[in-house]
Amino acid sequence: MEQTSKTTERKRTPYVLLTVLAVAIVIAAVSGFTAYRAQKAVKHVRYVGMLDVASEKIAKTIRGMEINARNVFDEVEKHLDSPEAVIAALESKVSLNPEVRGYFAAFEPNYFPKEGQWFEPYVHHVDSSAFEMRLVGSARHNYHKSDWYVRAKKSNESFWSEPYYYYDGTKISGHYTTFVKSVFDKTGRLACVCGADMTFEWLAKELQRIDEGNRHNELLDVFIDNDADYFTVVINSDGSCIAHPEGKSVKMTQEQVGRSLELRKKGVIDLEVNGVPSRVYYAPIEHVDWSVALVVKK
């Protein structure tokens, strides 16, 4: 009887050991999976934080542009007595913001009879210190039919125009967006539509500075690998990329994100970006109909 009990005990020992080993493996697997999920959740939070910081920095720069532009527009409004006074007002304020390419006042037809149908003085930067004044209104550049002009007359509110390409064969040709506001004279009559032009060059440089700042942020390095492959872009409400680091871009379609961009919502989506599986975080930017997107290689 004693011999039988010992034999039975020896038979049970391997099963007990196997059970203990199995339990240990399960615990290790659960712990590993939990740690992986926790690390993934922390990275998600950090990427969302990076996105929010980028959105805030861009919005802050744009707010500064708007404030300076309003100062220029107010100066034009005070000097509607003559074409020369308008030009002098523009020239006196053109150096307010180095990120603005130029300021203009696009007048209603024959507001100054001697200037005719198209009177649009445009004072713009030639380089970082010099600027020049040009009259750019003409039959070829009939600004009265431009979307921003028509919209300004209808809304009487300030806004940022849709991105567009302007070409006249000179150095001011390029991709622009314009902060626009209607200006009225003392009688309440619409005198002109004023605008501050911004190219997307500064925005691409700002995105590069944001990415470099993130990669040298010690707090982020704790949670995100130093060699993590990510970049930041700005996208329009239709999903097109309007500013991005050189050689890096992303396109988001309505089929992929629905109306999230148009409705100015935050979101996350998995996409193939230039053939690379990626996760794209996106969020709206205040004051403009754009969103900032953080593209992270998976």
The number of helices is 6
Shape: elongated
Q: Main β-sheet: number of strands, strand sense, barrel status?
A: 7 strands, antiparallel
Q: What amount of the residues lies in strands? A: 25-35%
Helix content: 40-55%
Number of strands: 12
- Global Rg: 30 Å
Structural category = alpha+beta
User: Cα distance, first to last residue?
Assistant: 64 Å
Arithmetic mean pLDDT: 82
Low-confidence stretches: 28-36
Order of helices and strands: HHEEEHEEEEHHEEHEEE
Fold and architecture overview:
This protein is of the alpha+beta class. It has six helices and twelve strands. It has helices at 2-78, 83-93, 147-155, 201-215, 218-223, 254-257; strands at residues 102-107, 121-125, 131-135, 159-160, 164-166, 174-184, 190-199, 230-236, 241-243, 267-273, 276-284, 290-297. Strands 1, 2, 3, 4, 5, 6 and 7 form a seven-stranded antiparallel beta sheet that branches. The protein is elongated and about 105 Å long. The N and C termini lie far apart (64 Å). Mean pLDDT is 82; it is low at 28-36.
